[in-house]
């Protein structure tokens, strides 16, 4: 069985450390009115 660790961008995990440990960070979506922003990408 293969296990993959995934967390969202609010974990405050350093991207370099996450990459070193094989952890995937997905951006949290922030809704402001009708607009959706991706944490760490658009914000």
Automatic annotation (TrEMBL):
InterPro entries: DegV. It holds the Pfam family DegV. This is DegV family protein.
